[in-house]
Every structure is written in structure tokens, then in C-alpha cells.
Amino acid sequence: MEGTHIMSDAAVPAVPPTPPVPLSALLAREDLGLRQIAGPAGGATVIHWAHTSEMSDPYPYLLGGELLLTAGVHIPEAAGSGTYFDDYVSRIVAAGGAALGFGLAPVHDSVPRALVAACDTYELPLIEVPPRTTFSGVARAVWQLMAQARHTELRRVTEAQQSLAAAASRPDPVRAVLRQLAQRIGGRAVLYGPEGTELAASGGDPGEAITRALGTLTAVVHPHSSGGAGNGATSPDAPAATAARAQQPPEPTPRTPAPAPTSATDTVDGTHLTAYALGSPPRFALAVATPHRDPGTHTITSVAAVLLSLLTGEQQSGTGAARVSALVRLLLGSDPQDVAPLLGGADAWLVVHARPTDDASSPDPLTAAALGAALGSALVDAHGDVVRVLLPAGREVIAQPGWTCGVSAPAGPEAWPSADAQAARALARARATRTALVRHGSRTALADLVPAEDATAHARTLLAPLAGSPALVETLRTWLSLHGSWDRTAVALAVHRNTVRQRVSRCAALLGADLDDPDVRMELWFALRQE
Asked: Is residue 154 part of a domain?
């Protein structure tokens, strides 16, 4: 590991945020006629700009990454017999120069052999510039290649942003974003949870050492993370990340811990690692491993981090502290109407029940949190096959891709249990009718003309024979709501159609009623709505 770097907005990059030009691309330009005659060959050398200088010591005038162009005016006649070329080349390398271009004519007819030898010794690429090629032409070619690279990079970033945004709108947005991110950066992306556990990952397996290093680096930006890829272990291959945490400024007071950085970088075995804290305070963390570290990859990863923060983060200004307080008060016996103001102060609320449309698997906390974010609420409960969301009645609930939803009528805190039952029945009807979203009816009905106490008393009397069997009551309710369809009722209740027939027949026998009579069905339906 080469050492953890904490990124800061105030950090000044050593090179401009423009894509460098591979030296091989410049050599490939036939119009220039350039030829490499010394130094390491291959495509590893990149150039950030071209600079012309005839100084014998160009060190003070170089920023690093240059193709330094010279005609050799500064070379003394006796340079070949001394250390002049060694000193000259070593100073270029010390300044961070990327390559040296030597122009033939009018000063020198050939490149001095001692200069060739010095460039080989210090592994500095040496380029022979023919007489027909001007230095300004070389510089122009560098900027043309840089503009092309910049255009390619902008297109890459734009396409990546579009694909990430599209992924965020899919049924399983968190994993979809991770998949797109790993594909676009050509590496691996990992999402860590509040306890440092690995919740989701995408991309090729980088190996055990890098996986451990990702977990350790994540702990730098995520104080609650246990590190070590979620198992609490510290990577033996990542001492720098541990040292970086140990070297953080001490706490000003025992009550005021030093804030953790929002991002950090490291390098392990030639693989570049980056970790981002998601949310404030951070509840999740994103870590990526890439073969290259460049501005485009950084931008793409930053966009993904923002999207994941929105998909996994807090959605309301009151945040978790108020919700924890509300939970504690409920556990200690407070009435829901007394606790509701802590959740946002809405007078009426909606309950949403949702199940994945494909029924392939039970929703996990990540998909449940993403659904809550899409609906605009962090009050989410994932239990079994159903996700329940509680949100203020003023929020518009629309169908969500990949989900089948049932929505209750607006209800005050004292009626939350009834609203929960309404949402459950609406979801059952939505699944039975293969509808993306069904709302519990809220229009004024004939039953509303009867005083509530009288309607309740009548319902209890009429349904008394079924009082000891909730399964019969729910089957009758669902069967009536689906107009007597055996198949749809079976789907809604997740039972066999023969079971539905047996239960409905049992209801008819206990009630002593003809369920084929529309008047009987209507009266039972009114009673079930009051029940």
C-alpha cells in the first residue's frame, strides 16, 4: 500500500484536470516524423503539455509532465567529455519532465551520443525532431491530441452520468447503480452499511488483499465501520490506512471527536482505491477499486456517490434522532398521536404496502430504503415479503417500477392500525388484478349515512358466526372485493383456489346465506367494511 491520501477541496492538483496525451499517440503522427531514440519504450509515458527552453538548467521553469523541446543552443562545445548531459538530464527528471525532444538543425546535425546515453541512464524518453518539423507544430499537435482526449473523456462522463441516472430509477436502484459504476470505471464498487458490513458489490473480484484494503480504507471515512471488509479485521496489507487514522488530530475534548474525512484514496498492488462517506453523519460508505485514477473516473464515481447518498440517506430534516425518540416513546407507552409530531407534524398519514412485482425474492433493507426514498419517506419497514412505508398524506404516491403497491386512505395517528389493514387489502387487490398501484376507496358511500356505532353493531351481529376464524373473514372480504373470482382470490391470499372454494362455502354455511344473491353480497360487504 502506497499510503492513504485524504482528499480536500483545497488541494491543488500537480497537473491540470485535462487528459494527458500518450507519448505513443504523438509518435504516431506521421506529419510530425518524430522518432524515439532513447529511454523506455512503450505506452506508459504521458504528456501534459509541451514547453520549449534553451536553458542549461530548465528545472526552475518546469511544472512536471512536460515534453521539453530544445535545439541544443545551450550545449557547450566540450559537453561530450564531461558531466554536462548527465547533469542536464537528471535535472529534467528531478523536475518531473515527461520526455525530451531534440530538434535537428540549425545548431546540431544529429543528437549528441552523450545525451542519448544520459537519457537511457535516467530512463527519460528522448525524441528526435526532424528539421522539417517546428516546435510550434509539435506543441500544436499536443494540444490537438489533448482536445480529442478531452472530448472523448467528456463523452465518457456524460454517457456514464446518463446510465447512472437511469440505473437509479430501476426497481433495485442501489445495486443497479453499483453495477453501472463498476462497468463504467472498469473496476469494482462496494457499498458498506452502518456497521461496516458489505451490503452489495459489483465488478470483478480484485483479490483478498485489495478486498481487505477496501474495508480498511472505508473505516477512514466511516468511523462506525469496523473495517476489514465488514468482519472487523484490519488488513495486514494496509498499514497506511490504519496509520492515517492513528495520525488524525486528537479530540479537542472528550465530548468532541474530530470529524472524519468525506473521502480518501490509496493504492494497493497498482490498483487505485477510493472511499466515500455517504450522508451526514455517514450511515453508508462507497468504496471503489480501479486500474486507473483519472479525472473522468473521479467524476463518475462522485456522481454515483451522490446518487447512492440519495438512495440510502435520510429524507427528512428531522432525521434519525427524532425517529429514535418517537420509537422510544412508543415503546414506553406513549399514544401514537402524541408521538406523530416528532415524525414531521402531519395531521394525516398514508400507509403504503409494497411487494416486488416479480416475487423473485424478499426485499432487503437496501431495496426497501430505495423505495422509501422514491416515495419521499425514511419511515420504512421491510418484513418478510412486504415493505411498509409511512408518509404524510400530502405526498403524492405514484406507481414505482418493479413494485406492486397498495395505499391506505389518509388517517390520523390514532387510526394507523386501520390504515395498515387498508394498505394490506389494497396490495392484495393490486396483486390479484395485476395492477401496479391500488388505493383504498375514500369516496362517500351509502354506509356513511348510517351512524358509525349502529353500523359497527350491525356488522358484528351479522358476522358473529365468523368471529372465531380470521382466515374465513379475510377470504370472504377478498373474494367479495374481487367479484367472486376464485383464481384472483387465490392469488391475493397466496393459497390454492380449492382452499378459497372451501372457505367461501364454509362462510355460506355458517352465515346461513346465499352468497350468489347480490343483495346478500352487498350487505356483507358493507358489514366487512365496518369490521
From this structure: no
3-state DSSP call for residue 519?
helix
Q: Which three cell numbers stand for residue 177?
A: 447503480
Interval 359-391: pLDDT, tens: 767 777 778 888 888 888 878 888 888 999 988
Whether the Cβ atoms of residue 419 and residue 389 lie closer than 8 Å to each other: no
Helix (H, G, I), strand (E, B), or coil: what is residue 263?
A: strand
Burial zone of 463 (CB within 10 Å; 0-12 exposed, 13-18 middle, 19+ buried)? buried
Q: What percent of the chain has pLDDT over 70?
A: 83
Of 61, 72, 139, 121, the C-alpha closest to 97 is: 61
From residue 452, give the alpha-carbon distance in Å to each of 201, 268, 456, 459. Answer: 54, 71, 6, 10
Three-state DSSP at 376 gives: coil
The strand pairing partners of 126, in sequence order, are 38, 100
DSSP 153-201: HHHHHHHHHHHHHHHHTSSSHHHHHHHHHHHHHTSEEEEE-TTS-EEEE
Give residue-wise pLDDT tens across range 175-222.
Answer: 889 999 999 988 889 888 777 778 888 888 777 777 777 777 777 766
CB 376 within 8 A of CB 350: no
The phi, psi pair for 453, rounded to 5°, reads -65, -40
Q: Which residues span the domain enclosing 120?
A: 21-145
What residues form DSSP beta bridges with 100? Answer: 68, 126
273 and 366 belong to one structural domain = no
| Residues 266, 241 share a domain | yes
Whether residue 329 is contained in a domain is answered as no
pLDDT tens digits for 69-88? 999 999 988 777 789 999 99
pTM for the full predicted model: 0.55
Asked whether residue 8 is assigned to any structural domain, the reply reads: no
The rounded distance, in Å, linking the Cα atoms of 297 and 182 is 10
The bridge status of strand 349-356 relative to strand 5-6 is unpaired
CA distance 156 to 25: 19
